[in-house]
């Protein structure tokens, strides 16, 4: 979850629309509702769907064999292109994909296509006539998967806990399934080793890659949801050959209950612990932080000479006020999120104005809550000296810095990443900073690529209230793929042994 509670009038909430299904339980084209923010759906012209339905009703199964071509195995960065052959020219074919997550929730995507003159459909080269995605996109069958009616999108992502999972893929003609197969999608290497870390007051999980060779080290901080970072990303990074310490810094066990006055030294201790571990190579440590964790990552990276680079995902270039534990929020005084040397780190206060009251009312009415105006208000309320004092010292990081922003982030707007660039330029270290903004992507894009993003425009906050994460699902999916590429590039650079020429 995220910072503050300023709400705006972004319409929408969890969708409950049910796609029509054929006798095999597969979706067939039906009109769908207008877009909502969490999760959205996309309307399709009614006349097109009626024509498509009539075509499907009139057509039977083809006389000959229908061939379906798809890879037997795919990695998490791969798309899912499907080819169908042996269909009468001009025939309508619905290609679908389905997986069941660890909560036994079915996720389905589909696209209706017209066979070409050779009786062929290629989902990677054709625009769907209707379906869960709208453009030529070899990844469309993956990111556009959605839940049916009766399955509330909480959490809004597919929970996939095993090293690989099965995706069923098929092609329907005339309302009947003409062919189907299965695809194994690799989520992470089954040889990844996971162990609890409870040393020197640290609370974390160590993810080690397969094999006995020392691996480059990465310390990973989650965001304001607190507790241990979710295992998906560290497992994926360990599969790439990194030893990852996923470190909690509040909200679990003996750590502070709220995100207030967390010592920077605690994160530095985590870096030192990892750097001296037998499983870790003698090379600089990379630090990765997402959302609120990006603040902490930049502060820790600036404070430790063992750090070779920082990846700040969905970042802010300012330090912000803390977030007390939920039960303490009513009477809590404003404190910094962080301390350094026992003193509070200079910060801006999460703000509010007349828009906040209307936003709260909207939230109670079931509309997603956007928090970006809260941070705009905090910036506006501070003078120039206060803003300068709250800037994070990016110039003190001895190595490359990645600022990975989402262009339609409704929690932490992408413009907060501008502060990192401006400070680096002013301090003469602009060449160290790589800024990447995924246009139209939302706050939940920093995850493993290849996951369904249809419901990731929002996330639950408390009962009955959803937080607006922003983003178009297709752009969030593309941002996850681009972000993964930028992240792995940064880690390779940050953990390189600079003692070698």
UniProtKB/TrEMBL annotation:
This is Acyl-CoA thioester hydrolase. GO terms for biological process: acyl-CoA metabolic process; fatty acid metabolic process. GO terms for molecular function: fatty acyl-CoA hydrolase activity. InterPro entries: AB_hydrolase_fold, Acyl-CoA_thioEstase_long-chain, BAAT_C, Thio_Ohase/aa_AcTrfase, Thio_Ohase/BAAT_N. It comes from Egibacter rhizosphaerae. Residues 1-41 are annotated as: Disordered. The active site is at 291 (charge relay system), 409 (charge relay system), 443 (charge relay system). Residues 81-198 form the Acyl-CoA thioester hydrolase/bile acid-CoA amino acid N-acetyltransferase domain. Belongs to the C/M/P thioester hydrolase family. Residues 382-492 form the BAAT/Acyl-CoA thioester hydrolase C-terminal domain. Keywords: Hydrolase.
């Amino acid at each position: 979850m995220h910072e503050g509670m300023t709400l705006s009038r972004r319409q929408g909430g969890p969708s409950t629309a049910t796609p029509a299904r054929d006798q095999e339980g597969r979706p067939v084209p039906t009109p769908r509702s207008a877009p909502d923010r969490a999760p959205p759906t996309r309307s399709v012209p009614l006349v097109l769907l009626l024509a498509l339905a009539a075509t499907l009703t009139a057509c039977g199964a083809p006389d000959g064999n229908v061939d379906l071509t798809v890879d037997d195995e795919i990695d998490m960065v791969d798309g899912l292109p499907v080819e169908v052959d042996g269909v009468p020219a001009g025939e309508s074919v619905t290609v679908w994909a389905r997986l069941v997550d660890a909560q036994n929730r079915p996720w389905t995507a589909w696209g209706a296509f017209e066979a070409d003159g050779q009786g062929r459909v290629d989902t990677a080269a054709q625009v769907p006539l209707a379906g869960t995605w709208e453009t030529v996109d070899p990844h469309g069958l993956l990111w556009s998967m959605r839940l049916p009616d009766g399955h509330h999108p909480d959490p809004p992502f597919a929970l996939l806990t095993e090293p690989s999972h099965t995706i069923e893929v098929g092609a329907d003609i005339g309302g009947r399934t003409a062919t189907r197969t299965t695809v194994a999608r690799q989520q992470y290497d089954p040889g990844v080793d996971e162990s609890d870390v409870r040393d020197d007051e640290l609370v974390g999980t160590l993810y080690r890659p397969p094999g006995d060779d020392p691996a480059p080290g990465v310390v990973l901080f989650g965001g304001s949801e607190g507790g241990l970072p979710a295992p998906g990303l560290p497992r994926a990074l360990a599969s790439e050959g990194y030893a990852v310490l996923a470190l909690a810094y509040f909200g679990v066990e003996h750590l502070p209950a709220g995100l207030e006055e967390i010592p920077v030294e605690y994160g530095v201790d985590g870096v030192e612990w990892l750097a001296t571990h037998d499983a870790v190579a003698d090379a600089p440590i990379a630090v990765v932080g997402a959302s609120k964790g990006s603040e902490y990552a930049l502060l820790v990276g600036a404070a430790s000479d063992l750090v070779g680079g920082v990846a700040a995902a969905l970042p802010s270039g300012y330090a912000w006020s803390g977030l007390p534990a939920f039960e303490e929020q009513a009477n809590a005084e404003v404190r910094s999120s962080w301390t350094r040397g026992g003193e509070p780190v200079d910060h801006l206060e999460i703000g509010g104005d007349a828009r906040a009251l209307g936003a709260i009312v909207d939230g109670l009415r079931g509309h997603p809550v956007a928090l970006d105006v809260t941070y705009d208000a905090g910036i506006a309320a501070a003078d120039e000296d206060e803003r300068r004092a709250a800037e994070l010292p990016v110039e003190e990081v001895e190595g490359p810095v990645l600022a990975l922003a989402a262009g339609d982030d409704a929690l932490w707007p992408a413009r907060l990443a501008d502060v990192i660039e401006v400070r680096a330029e002013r301090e003469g270290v602009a060449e160290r900073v790589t800024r990447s903004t995924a246009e139209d992507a939302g706050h939940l894009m920093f995850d493993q690529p290849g996951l369904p993003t249809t419901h990731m425009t929002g996330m639950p906050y408390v009962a009955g209230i959803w937080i607006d994460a922003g983003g178009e699902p297709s752009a969030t999916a593309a941002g996850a793929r681009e972000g993964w590429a930028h992240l792995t590039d940064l880690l390779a650079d940050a953990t390189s042994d600079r003692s070698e020429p």
